[in-house]
Design a protein that fits this description.
alpha/beta; 260 residues; binds nicotinamide-adenine-dinucleotide; 8 helices
Length: 260
């Protein structure tokens, strides 16, 4: 088991990619906090993962944009398990509009969930990682950390911003054994993407089939979606990597859509 008894916090892990990462970590023996907006969804996911073992999970309610909620959630994990070895800052949403029509409130909400969330969870976990002599912080970026697409000004801006945060955390954390990385998936068929297909079709005046085949998968080598398991494998690699050799790096996981 690659993460036996490691204490991990995965935000946005009641659904989609975060849930798959939490499941992978529990399967590798970790103790995982499922941190998501609604306590019942977090607890239901935690119960399912614990039943499978061999690790365990527990659910907490955490809105990553709320500093008090983040601090309370991290404190609850430390109180229960005594440390934080791995933070996966994964919670995210998508809102698409042409830039000139992007409501300012939506812009601020996007940046808050993706960037404030990454900042606040990092800020809350780093002191514990320093005290215990190390840890791994993994941000969920996107191909859109490196590439742009129409209608996604807020998302692309936020996902690019995570690269900067990860690099600073890598430099500040290096002397303390704290590593930081960004995972950059291509399109993964989760509720976040399912919601976008009709929205993009409407905004771009094309069919939903064209959105999938041209906009989402047109650039891949195999016209296949990236899977939640593809992403979870990379999250396992970064969580378990023992040295600073990869710190500060992002890794694109996109079936060849974007090649660095
Ligand atoms: P998803 O909608 O399946 O899951 C997102 C989870 O985040 C949900 O459980 C939701 O409740 C939670 N969440 C939303 N706002 C939150 C908040 N303020 N505080 C705490 N939790 C919150 O989406 P997903 O596709 O699994 O996305 C997960 C991450 O992966 C996001 O950061 C997303 O940008 C990124 N990503 C997704 C894709 C994709 O194609 N699906 C590609 C690249 C990157």
């Amino acid at each position: 088991m690659k993460l036996k008894d490691k204490v991990c916090i995965v935000t946005g892990s009641a659904s989609g990619i975060g849930r798959a990462i939490a499941a992978k970590y529990v399967a590798e023996g970790a103790r995982v906090a499922i941190a998501d907006l609604k306590l019942d969804a977090s607890e239901a996911t935690a119960a399912e993962l614990t039943a499978k073992g061999p690790g365990e999970a527990f659910g907490i309610a955490m809105d990553v944009t709320n500093e008090a909620a983040v601090n309370e959630g991290v404190a609850a994990v430390v109180s229960r398990w005594g440390r934080v070895d791995v933070l996966v800052s994964n919670a995210g949403i998508q809102i698409v509009h042409p830039v000139e029509e992007f409501p300012f409130e939506d812009w601020k909400r996007m940046l808050s969930i993706h960037l404030d969330g990454a900042f606040l969870t990092t800020k809350a976990c780093v002191p514990h990682m320093k005290t215990q002599g190390g840890g791994a912080i993994i941000y969920m970026g996107s191909v859109h950390s490196h590439e742009a697409s129409p209608l996604k000004s807020a998302y692309v801006t936020a996902k690019h911003g995570l690269l900067g945060l990860a690099r600073v955390v890598a430099k500040e954390g290096g002397p303390h054994g704290i590593r930081s990385n960004v995972i950059c998936p291509g399109f993964v068929r989760t509720p976040l993407v399912d919601k976008q297909i009709p929205e993009q079709a409407k905004a771009l005046g094309i069919s939903e089939d064209e959105v999938v085949k041209k906009m989402m998968l047109g650039g891949t080598v195999d016209t296949e979606f990236t899977t939640i398991d593809d992403v979870a494998e990379v999250a396992l690699l970064f969580a378990g990597f023992e040295t600073n050799a990869l710190t500060g790096q992002s890794l694109v996981v996109s079936h060849g859509w974007y090649m660095q």
